[in-house]
Write a structure and sequence with these properties.
Layout: H1 2-27, H2 33-46, H3 55-70, H4 75-89, H5 93-107, H6 110-121, H7 123-170
Helix pairs in contact: 2-5, 2-6, 3-4, 6-7
Length: 171
């Protein structure tokens, strides 16, 4: 029963993904080759699809763990089979890259994409990619401290003023 549910979920996910890719593939006619080329250069510069690098290995690892728990006597066979099937699926990463290029090509002009690629390929752009997340985390912390101070001060000021006004109304 569990195998059927898992297969059904996988089949449903595959159908949804196929529908999305087919729909976007039709919309791909709206972008030019120059936009796609510029989009790929910008994507490479900002490493936009890097976060997806670990998806297939993670899914394969999780699947191996699940299957081995259910059939520990077949561990070697499970590992070999899942690894082989994962390697067979690896070329599908190109589908994601193609989709990302279409998305970027629709969102930006070729000139904008070229400017993005130029900036993020520069030393300043590389530094922003490297140190930007740290700066954003630090800014978020500073924003939290600032918001706490504003909350404290507004609450105190409003309470004091309300006490005065309410006391004046009671007289």
């Amino acid at each position: 029963m569990m195998k059927n549910k898992r297969f059904g979920g996988i089949a449903f996910g595959a159908l949804v993904a196929a529908g999305l890719f087919a729909g976007n593939a039709l919309a791909a006619d709206e972008v030019t080759d120059a936009q796609i080329k510029a989009a790929r250069a910008a994507m490479d510069a900002i490493r936009v699809t890097t976060p997806f690098d670990g998806i297939l290995p993670t899914i394969a690892s999780q699947l191996k763990s699940t299957l081995i728990q259910g059939s520990p006597n077949y561990e070697a066979l499970i590992v070999e089979t899942v690894d082989q099937k994962a390697i067979e699926l690896a070329p599908r990463r190109a589908d994601l890259e193609r989709e990302a290029a279409i998305i970027y090509a629709k969102a930006f002009t070729a000139d904008e994409l070229n400017a993005i690629a130029a900036f993020y390929s520069s030393p300043a752009g590389q530094k922003l990619l490297k140190d930007g997340p740290l700066a954003i985390r630090e800014l978020s912390k500073a924003g939290d401290v600032w918001a706490a101070g504003i909350t404290r001060d507004l609450t105190k000021a409003a309470d004091e003023e309300l006490e005065k006004k309410i006391a004046a109304q009671k007289k």
